Amino acid sequence: MKPSRFPLIVTWAVIAFFYIPIVILVANSFNSSRFGGSWESTSLKWYIRLMNEPSIWHALTNTLVIAGAATLISMVLGTSAAFALHRFAGSKLQKLHYSIIYTPLVLPEILMGLSMLLFFVALKVQLGLATIAVAHVTFCLSYVAMTVLARLQDFDFAIIEAAQDLGAGWWTTVWKVLLPMLAPGILAGGLLAFTLSIDDFVISFFVAGPGSTTLPIKIYSMIKYGAPPLINALSTILLTITFLCVIASQYLSNRGRQAA
Amino acid sequence: MKAEHRRKLSEWLVTLPSFVWLLLLFLIPTVLVFAIMFKPATPYGGIGEGWTLETFWTLGNPNYPAIVWRTIWLSVAATALCILLATPMGYYMARVSPARRRLVLLLVILPFWTSFLVRIFAWKVLLHPEGALKHALVFLGLIAPETSLLYNAYAVLLVMVYTELPFAILPIYAASEKFDFRLIEAAKDLGATSFLAFRKIFLPGIRVGLLTAFLMVFIPSLGSYVIPDIVGGPTSEMIGNKIAQRTFVDRNLPHAAGLSALLTVAVLIPMVAITALRRKESPKDALIEEGV
Fold first, then answer.
1. Per the count of CB atoms within 10 A, which of A175, A254, B6, B150 is most buried?
2. For position A188, which CATH number holds?
3. Which residues in chain B have their CB less than 8 angstroms from residue A10's CB?
């Protein structure tokens, strides 16, 4: 019997649905007309105007500083968490540990955002770049832990015992055996944390203070109150960067898989 | 005995950093929301001294039931549409050649990695009164020129499905990939139609994936705030919008905390139920298997 074509049709229709708005957005960024309805002429004027907008560069710097700090801290905390969850799986402490790591993954961002804002206000902490970075570590940690944990599932702990039998101390085992073997997982988790931090709007918006505008906060205020063509241009740049990064990382991981 | 002690000590040492961090910045703040709900607000946006039931009574605000109801129906509709579209996709992706599968997976993951705000903004451009889609629909005579595609609950629903669909596709695909398709052949050999085999064999076979997809779409949907804020209007506000409004416009943190407490309870009920169901299904947790 011939297989049904229905799944095929749905799949490609959904993919068209995914990309049509993006294609129109990108096309509009090269349209010199202020509204996308009619095509005036192809131009780069919105890109040039974007380059001369100092507040965007300031927001971008803030975003990168926050993402860098949040990624490093969440990589350390997430890796040790994953190690604990895997090595001591089944203990009461780890069951509790697992639920406290898992819950932030599904909880709506607005709840985390408001609860951390209340926490900072109650402690009279000055809101700013530091509070955003701390908030980002809180949700990135779980993603790093889950990514590293997935890697640990295929990890052979006999290698650790072998290293110790051959006289390696605890420190040597961690630095020379465990971490190098887990490096791809830790880096993948870090990459995920970095992307999520750069993209986060809701949580950042809640715990941001004066002068700590990040790029998503800037984009949001441009969408609400600013010039649409400028956002088209900015979006196109962001889309190009993410597309290139994702395709490169897919290519690298596919090549790594074939080499192994 | 000594080895046992050392093991416990090293367990605590590697657990403590992440545990303490999340205890301080996740668990305590979440509990704090419930406490601050019973605090008075100060006129300049702070939290006052003493305790009051004032916020608690404002939850009886006559506008709230409509907003709560809208939040629930939009989330249910978005989840149903996502699962309805993701299930045939998971089926398709599990059956095609590995090269084709990699391509589809890449095309599904790409929007997932791109900026959330940019994706919402793309729809605002597309649905805009001056935008291409509106012009095309008016030209084809499908809608009247005065119809607005933006700023209504359907626009919110459309964009919710758009942004959340990858979260349904990935777990359903992961479950489909592990499904043994010979079972479907067997059912057909025994006389079942394609649809009957799909419904009676395939769907129960990917149950864990369906449950995870439900959780990953429904719960974030309940907390939607940016989507109704950008493509919705005053008649399509959700609980998330009210929380943001109380925080940033009215600067009344106890009221925001009260609504947040309500949303937390609403989110915990399906979460606990699904987790219990899933645990019964597979003791190993589904999220790890999917490599999320």
1. B150
2. 1.10.3720.10
3. 85, 88-89, 92
